[in-house]
Amino acid sequence: MTAPILRRLNDLRAEHGTWIRAGESVAVVPTMGALHAGHLSLVEAACAACDRVIVTIFVNPRQFNNAADLANYPRTEHEDAIKLAGLDVDVIYVPDGDQIYPDGYATNVSVSGVADVLDGEFRHGHFDGVATVVAKLFLQTGAQKAYFGQKDFQQLMVVKRMARDLDIPIEVIGCATVREASGLAMSSRNLRLSPEGLERAAKLYPVMQQVAARLVGGESFAPLADEARIKLQAAGFNDIEYFDLRCEEHLQLLDRPTRPARLLVAAWMDGIRLIDNIEVDELKA
Ligand code: AMP
Fold first, then answer.
1. Ligand 1 mutation target, pool 43, 69, 150, 151, most atoms within 8 A of CB
2. Structure-derived torsion over alpha carbons of residues 115, 120, 123, 125, reported in degrees to the nearest 10
3. I want to staple 261 with a disulfide (CB 3.0 to 4.6 A). Which of 32, 102, 184, 257 is the partner?
4. Does pLDDT of 228 surpass 90?
């Protein structure tokens, strides 16, 4: 059954009120739409854990640092609703712009530390936009659990920090990255790649896996990163913004995975910025 699409906060609150009075648990899955199997895996996890599930779709202008990227971002509300119809979603919340940023809106949520590095360096203001809209969506939906993808690992860390720091009573849960058969991490931005671009982009994952395996074998990161950058350039990634090994908790740079660690990459293919990350097994002393 297709879930109702609500566009006004008052309507969402009315629905939410009946659930809370009935003692039901509520989950939220924030998205920007153009839904794929990665998003749907989050929705499935939410449905399995909670009585009620709200999927939000909002292309948040404040988290785009590039006007063309915002203009070109795919908007497929009708198809998204059809994809969600197969799952046990209760409400699709597609807020009108003024429900998030009403006239005179002046508040910004800014996280430091984990938000300052990686995408924080290359996409100025991006995480302020993310933290602000996610804080609002947490408060508007009143959910007890929120589901995010590890695909955007830094975003997951920023959102966890924000919810803890602001005492928002919500548990933020990170779910595994869903990949195409080729290994390419699913992303709404993949829609803008040509078939050849998709094939070349799929080279990223095996390169990351090889580096992770050699790190676990005891090699240090710097020479592996140099080698990987050369391979990625040969595959057609023309601008590799970062290819880093960092600890999971604080996203500090590492040369060896001596703590829970991630390999995190941002690189451009045919004018599209792709990000990916994988876990690296910890080296035991
Ligand atoms: P987006 O619509 O791209 O803002 O993503 C909405 C949510 O879906 C975020 O929590 C993302 O991390 C998550 N997500 C996006 N792609 C994937 C994927 N391939 N696997 C798992 N989660 C994903």
1. 151
2. 50
3. 257
4. yes
Alpha helices (H) along 124-263: 126-141, 153-165, 195-201, 204-216, 221-235
- Closest atom, ligand 1, to C-alpha of 35: 2
188 CB near ligand 1 (under 6 Å):
yes
Q: Would you state the pLDDT for residue 126?
A: 96
- Per-residue pLDDT tens for 38-77? 999 999 999 999 999 999 999 999 999 889 989 989 999 9
Helix-then-strand count for the chain, H and E = 11, 9
Does the Cβ of 202 fall within 6 Å of ligand 1? no
Dist. CA 104 → ligand 1 center (Å): 30
Looking at residue 49, its pLDDT comes to 98
Distance from Cα 218 to the centre of ligand 1, integer Å: 32
Q: How far is CA 32 from the centre of its chain?
A: 10
Query: Is 137 a pocket residue for ligand 1 (Cβ < 6 Å)?
Result: no
* pTM of the predicted model as reported, rounded to 2 decimal places: 0.97
Q: Is 60 in the pocket of ligand 1 (CB under 6 A)?
A: no
CB atoms within 10 A of CB 12: 20
Give the C-alpha separation, 267 to 285, whole Å: 33
Instruction: Kindly state if the Cβ of 32 falls inside 6 Å of ligand 1.
Output: yes
Q: Tens digits of per-residue pLDDT, 114-164?
A: 999 999 999 999 999 999 999 999 999 999 999 999 999 999 999 999 999
Residues tagged active-site: 39
Token output for 264: 């995190």
Smallest Cα–Cα separation from 67: which of 117, 154, 125? 125
